[in-house]
Design brief:
131 residues, alpha+beta, 3 helices
């Protein structure tokens, strides 16, 4: 009986820490420039990118909640908001774009990661979200 309670608690715990990502993230090593009002605020290296945002290491501090233009080599220039900081010098940003722009990002990521030409499925739809 006690084991059943432990199993149920473990399942609940496991579900509560399950990732709630809306988009598959691609590991992507590329330079990034962080710009506001045509002035570079910081620069760094991308950690991963998705249709919804980017994680990156920055070489100059950025303000959480601030809006910037993220110039990512190979992906393009996208407006976004810094959502959080992690690991000291790393940041997560959400792209402030509409669905049409997200589809464009999907196509770009599909071209970069070699997932295009396989039907009408976007890169994020091809991702395996089971893990």
């Amino acid at each position: 009986m006690a084991q059943q309670g432990m199993d149920a608690m473990y399942e609940k715990e496991e579900m509560s820490v399950a990732p709630n990502r809306k988009s598959f993230r691609f590991d992507y090593a590329a330079p990034i420039d962080i710009v506001r009002e045509l002035e570079r605020q910081s620069f760094g290296a991308v950690i991963n990118v998705s249709r919804g945002g980017v994680a990156f290491r920055a070489f100059m501090p950025l303000k959480i909640g601030a809006k910037y233009e993220f110039n990512i080599r190979g992906v393009g220039s996208l407006p976004g908001t810094i959502m959080r900081r992690f690991g000291g010098t790393c940041y997560a940003a959400r792209f402030d774009v509409d669905e049409a722009q997200k589809r464009s990002i999907d196509k770009t990521l599909a071209a970069i990661f070699g997932t295009e030409g396989e039907g009408d499925t976007t890169a994020s739809e091809k991702a395996d979200f089971s893990s």
